[in-house]
Amino acid sequence: MAPNSIHWFRKGLRLHDNPALREAIRGAGTVRCVYFLDPWFAGSSNVGVNRWRFLLQCLEDLDASLRKLNSRLFVIRGQPANVFPRLFKEWKISRLTFEYDSEPFGKERDAAIKKLAMEAGVEVIVKISHTLYDLDKIIELNGGQPPLTYKRFQTLISRMDPPEMPVDALSDALMGRCVTPVSEDHGDKYGVPSLEELGFDIEGLPSAVWPGGETEALTRIERHLERKAWVANFERPRMNANSLLASPTGLSSYLRFGCLSCRLFYYKLTDLYRKVKKNSSPPLSLYGQLLWREFFYTAATNNPRFDKMEGNPICVRIPWDRNPEALAKWAEAKTGFPWIDAIMTQLRQEGWIHHLARHAVACFLTRGDLWISWEEGMKVFEELLLDADWSVNAGSWMWLSCSSFFQQFFHCYCPVGFGRRTDPNGDFIRRYLPVLRGFPAKYIYDPWNAPESVQAAAKCIIGVHYPKPMVHHAEASRLNIERMKQIYQQLSRYRGLGLLASVPSTNGNGNGGMMAYSPGEQQPGANGNNSSSNGHGHGVSGSPVGTANGSGSILLNFDSEEQTGPSAVGQQTTQQQRIKPPSQTQTQQQQQQQQQHGYHSVPDTSQTITSSRVYHEFAVPQHPGLHLHTRGGITGKRERESEREGSGEEEQASCSVHKMQRQSAET
Amino acid sequence: MKRSLEPSEQQDGGGTSGTVKKKSLKKSQKLRRDKHSEEEGGLHWERLPQEILLHIFQYLPLLDRAYASQVCRGWNQAFHMPELWRCFEFELNQPASSYLKATHPELIKQIIKRHSNHLQYVSFKVDSSRESAEAACDILSQLVNCSLKTLGLISTARPSFMELPKSHFISALTVVFVNSKSLSSLKIDDTPVDDPSLKVLVANNSDTLKLLKMSSCPHVSPAGILCVADQCHGLRELALNYHLLSDELLIALSSEKHVHLEHLRIDVVSENPGQQFHTIKKSSWDAMVRHSPKFNLVMYFFLYEDEFGPFFRDEIPVTHLYFGRSVSKDVLGRVGLTCPRLVELVVCANGLRPLDEELIRIAQRCTQLSAIGLGECEVSCSAFVEFVKMCGDRLTQLSIMEEVLVPDHRYGLDDIHWEVSKHLGRVWFPDMMPTW
Fold it and tell me: Domain named F-box: which ranges (chain B) (predicted)?
């Protein structure tokens, strides 16, 4: 008997280049394409209305395209783990297909469903099509650890075979005899819900600047390529005032939801390049947008704490300020810096901002001005940004806040000058902040400096109609650069000592630290002694004693990735073994009973499942309870993983970032 | 058991979940450790000589030492050896203002009680809350029977010492100044330290003070810092804001009695646009260079473009230059003319016109230049290649944002890294930011 298939849509919301969907219909008698939505969850999720609307439009488009093939989309109200067993029975399913999800929690969810399917005697077929490459192969090529610099990543990519070619779109011919049984009440039972149905108030909601769906995506890619062909220039376009606005050729959200196949995009770019440039082979930079995405997916795939600072082995621990008021001002476009506020307004209204605009607001929130944790900014983007994907969002925030990936941190985007350089006239600001419309270009980026007469003429008094700047930028950047320097100096110090003396300690400080990092006292005796002996135990306290060498440098010499990179992730091993109970115990004997206090341990990355993560993948919302249930299903796998991680060979690899975390955690 | 975990949650700073997990984790940790020690049994660890134990303990983090101290009486004695308590870093954070954990109050009590006389190298890391700054002052004022060599007051976020009443802060700080008598390094950036308290510092520690960092201390006057320079002849490293810098200070630092200065770090920050800055005479800088030919002069500029008027008019012995805000082509041109000792240059931003001639001039004239970082600037690829060619392999640090390089008729973005790598003698790439 021909199998009955379910294809489970999550991302990959398209019929073109969808290898898993192809598998669903291969030789099948029936196929049903399902998508899970939990309407009770939707309204309370932390995903904003623009993102939900985009998703619903994608689903409607999918349904419309499937109708043309005499099929339909089944939007199932509920949670996959709860509903699948019933569907398997009801529809007599023998095959389940879906696109591979590389993200840690997606993998976990899928493992649980696979188990359910196997128990129900359902064959499961999973295909990679959200990324260009099999990420595990990249990691394997890098010796088992994800590359932590983009350069290294590019090197690895250049050593790999090109991505697989996209497969043909689903068509009548491909469908063949495979049919979709559709009941009369399909619309009621399985129709795509409306925003109201999900509990959103849509009164006054402006129409979508970025309409969702595969059809739109395919129109856009043609426009995108036409424009590229027209300029015949494949270099990164230089930024101007126009690039700040939503463009009909923008693709990021479509790639995020999988309305557009990254492989299709890849090969269309390749073809175009060959056509225009005649026979020369395309450089990696041609695929920049796709490769960055790939880079962050690779970095995140085995790191469930990729979106956290604590317990994230690749993230530098930075003592960010906790400041809800300042965070709210940033998120609600009330910083008093028109450039920042205009970008945040655009983000909230439309769901997309230019990548340099992202850099500007992310830098402002974190290392540039407010010194607020990148995690907070990431959450706001997760709510508002259409193309925010867990890996890419968290990775980019870590990057921009200089929390990982070995960044130079000297460069802070100025919240006044950067905008002015990009759009000297200030039209972008006038568009999104009409209250400032009356200001002349001269003052529009720093209206608080405008004379009163100018403010009066503009009908906008700063401090009344528009806020005063929330920080003194010069002072804030002075402080923040200094802090970053201190943190990175400690980091590089630890890099030397961190590898448990197996690497010459000259490495990290080779650049010649500087007095400016911390009060460095050059007293060879006590100091040298102390910093080597204590540097590693209780290292931080050793640091004020001395940077043994002194120059004024703020440019850091990062060790080559080959040394530090691969060792960074997967330090769970060391971490696990290093996690020690209470700081309290030094008072031991006398105070036995107090020993349970002050228990500071870093959650174990390989065993902890963060409950907050439950909300991340809104496409398949999961209730916290269910999530726990899901966990149970895959314990076996988890255990195997930790066994592997616990094996000795990885132990010697040790990472300074991680060391530093450990040390701070312990003190 | 359950109740006993509560304080830890508080300490966590209301962080994520995890109490339960920690609990089980702790168990597994413990199990593993127990197993471990069984295997090593029979080695008579308790007979390890004290000095070897001390040596081992020095390599262990505090928590591991604490564990070890529970093994036996001998190890417990080792745990309390003064050598292990010379350095300490107090981390003072509040759950409401920080994500990081604080040093446990019990531990602080214990240290003050049992080890305060052993402390020599002490730092305080405080978050942005006033409470944390107050807690730091409370600890400071209890350090009456110790003799510190190093003291660092470090604000990890917004400077919170500035929020304290000045008198409160000063009285705590002077406790250390008066009792220590042999302070060698002092880092008190962003604090309300004032002239009278510096006098106390000088009166008690003038023979030993070698390093003083006090950037952005608004209550100190040029006279206050001059008093330090006059009396503390061993001062080798100094960091302060430009408004405290004077000809008199430089002359004092280059007097016969004074040791050679190693580092001078100056922050030039403008409070309001259009602020006027004083100038320093060339003769004063010359005196400095004569007295301390090898000293590093590190200058951080956070100015508006139109405030650079008084700077880089005369030759200045600056070695490290950081321009945190937009700086004009004109000023960078002057840098090439007036900074012959320049070693490192960082330009965060510039206008829209390419910096070609300015860079070439810097390459020609600043023969010590070995590190450069460029942020939001523009340089044509040809000029950049020329710059690198002129500097050659003395450029050990070359951090250029990809956007900085403007392709021209000779070089595109794809081939520039080859050309630059060739002249550097090593593989080089521009810095990239994610297209996201």
Answer: 42-88
